[in-house]
Amino acid sequence: MDKTVVELFAGVGGFRCGFNHVTLENNQVNEENNWNFVWANQWEPSTKSQAAFDCYVKRFGKSSNNVNKDIASIDKSIIPDHTVLVGGFPCQDYSVARSLSNEQGIEGKKGVLWWQIAEVLKEKRPPFVLLENVDRLLRSPSNRRGRDFGIMLRTFLDYGYSVEWRVINAAEYGFPQKRRRVFIFAYHNSTKYYKKMKNCPYSDLIYEKGIFAKNFPIKQNYEKSLTNDKIITDQGYKTRITKDEFSDIVEVSDNFEFHFLNAGLMVEGNIYTFKTESDCDKVTTLGEIIEKGPVDNKYFLSDEKLKKFEYLKGSKKLKRKGPNGACYNYSEGAVAFPDYLDRPARTMLTSESTVNRSSHVIKDVQTGKYRILTPLEAERIQMFPDNWTNIPEKSMTERRRYFLMGNALVVGVVRRLGDYLGEIVSNEE
Questions:
Q1: Which of 55, 91, 200, 327 is catalytic?
Q2: Contact indicator for 39, 78 with CB cutoff of 8 Å
Q3: Tens digits of per-residue pLDDT, 328-357?
Q4: Residue 368 domain boundaries
Q5: Domain identity same for 272 and 298
Q6: CATH code of the domain in which 111 resides
Q7: Would residue 280 show up in a list of annotated catalytic residues for this protein?
Q8: Closest among 185, 196, 119 to 153, alpha carbons compared
Q9: Are 200 and 270 a contacting pair, CB within 8 Å?
C-alpha cells in the first residue's frame, strides 16, 4: 500500500509538516519522510486574501494538485486515489434532513464542511483517515449533547469504517502549548489493521493497543474488561448507532444524544467511551522557545497598551444587559500577567498579538519590559519551522501570520501520529 495523502483544509500545511518532518533551511524546504501528498485543498471563504494557500504553495510548490477553490465546488471523483485522508475542519452544526424533492434523499446543512469530507469518503474510500477538531465537537450542540459527533460516527459506519478518537492536550505530552484538540482516526473495515483490532477488547484498545495509546500514553487506572460487554460503568459508557437503532442518518440527527468522554471508539456501530488521564512528565515551557536575542521595538507595549492589557487580564465584576433587556452580573477571574515563562504557552487564538484578554504578554528576557510574542515565537508555539509564514507575498501581513498560527495545529502531535500511521500502512503490504 503506497504512502499517499490527500490534505483537506490544508491551511499552511500543518499535517504535511508533521507527517514529513519538514524543516526550513536557507528558505528551502526539506521533507525528511516520504509521505506523498498527492492533492491538497485550501480555500478561505469571504475574502480575496488567500494567505494560507499562498504560504502552502510557497513552501511546497505550485501544482495543479494544490487547489485553491471552494471544496464544495469540486467534483470529488477528480481527487487522486489515496491511502490517508487528513484535515482539520471547523466545528459546525451538522444537522441533516430529508430532501423536500425526494423523500429518500438526505441533505446536510449547506456550507458545513463535514459533508465535503463525507463526499470524499463515499467517492474514494481511503483506507485511513486522520482528522482534527476542537474538543467541543464531542459536546455539540448544547441542546442535545453528542448529536453532531454521532452524525459523524454514523457517516463513517455507513461507509464501512471503524473509528477511534482522543482529546489530546499537547502540553501534557511535552509540547509547548496547552492546546486541547480531538483527533479522530478512522480505518476501513477492509484493512488488515481492522482485522487485527476488531478482536481486541475495547478497553485494551483504548488504554494499550490503539494508535493514541501507543503514542500518547494514559494512566492504567482501570480494570481490564474480560469481554467487550463488561465495561464498568464508572470507567466508561456504551451505546449503539447501528441501523437497528437508527434507520438512517436523519434519525440520528433527529434523535441521537450521548455523553462522549475524551477517548473512545466505534466498531460495527458499537460505541464505547472512556475518561482517560495523560501519563507523561515531560514539559516544554514558553521560556524555552522565545527569542533570546534583541527583539524589534514594535513588539513592546506602550504605556497605553500596557494599561489596557492590565485591565483586560484582571478580574472583573460588571453589570450587563441581556438581549431581553434584563440586567445581570458578569464576572471573570484574572489571567496570568505577564504569561508564565516556566510553563507551556496558553492556547493561541487567531486574535494573537491584538490587545485582548487572550493574547500572550511576556516580560522580555533581555530588557525586562513587557511585549507581545513575535510571529516567529507564534510559529514555535505551534512547532512549525522558524519563519514558515515569513513570505514576501502581499497577502502575508504580520497580522495574518498570527491569524494563521491561531488556526493551525500543533505539528509535533501530528508528527507522532504520522510516524505510527506509516508503520500501520507498511503492515498492510
A1: 91
A2: no
A3: 888 889 999 999 999 999 999 999 999 999
A4: 286-382
A5: no
A6: 3.40.50.150
A7: no
A8: 185
A9: no
